[in-house]
Design a protein that fits this description.
Length: 182
């Protein structure tokens, strides 16, 4: 199996998911002023995801002042997506659900199989994607991407805020774009 990495400065895959509040999030249909921050999480079963998303919700106003729109999304069904949004008291973060695993793979996310109940007593889905964080420019190109094979050691949102400040102040380009011979 050959996972294809997304390339900075190149278009990202299409993304169209329902939102727990109704309606849909279609990447590029109403882009943020500066960036869309896409946070792919494992699902309701993941206690590390809940803690991570609580921090994202806490910092959502900071991202908004920088012209950044946020969506958290997973392959969970509507009920589980709503439960996670309620758990983190989402107001600044949009929550999408029903991400297809084919779409997750197009984004370069790793797919895991269920190991039954987690430490918080919630069953893992049969298949689900591991975490990923992407920053996408309004033109639909990748600015930043990070994927994990595990729920641990994710990019910290406070660090991303600093990076966004630097990128805005210095008009810093997306890096990692070279695809020629090495």
């Amino acid at each position: 199996m050959n996972l294809q990495a997304l390339m900075p400065r190149q278009p990202v895959p299409a993304l169209d998911v329902p939102l727990v509040t109704g309606g849909r999030f279609v990447l590029g249909a109403a882009p943020a002023e500066r960036f869309d921050l896409l946070v792919f999480y494992r699902g309701l079963h993941c206690p590390i995801c809940a803690k991570y998303l609580l921090e994202l919700e806490r910092l959502a106003p900071e991202f908004a002042t920088r012209g950044v729109q946020i969506i958290a999304l997973s392959s969970d069904d509507e009920d589980r997506g709503k439960q996670m949004a309620e758990k983190v008291k989402a107001s600044g973060v949009k929550f999408g659900y029903g991400l297809g695993l084919k779409s997750a793979r197009e984004w370069g996310l790793y797919i895991s199989t269920s190991r039954g109940k987690t430490s918080i007593g919630i069953d893992e889905p049969a298949l689900f994607s591991e975490p990923g964080v992407f920053i996408v420019r309004p033109d639909g190109t990748l600015y930043y991407g990070a994927v994990q094979t595990m729920p641990f050691a994710r990019p910290q949102f406070q660090d991303l805020l600093g990076a966004i400040d630097f990128a805005i102040a210095k008009d810093y380009p997306a890096r990692g774009e070279y695809t020629g011979a090495v």
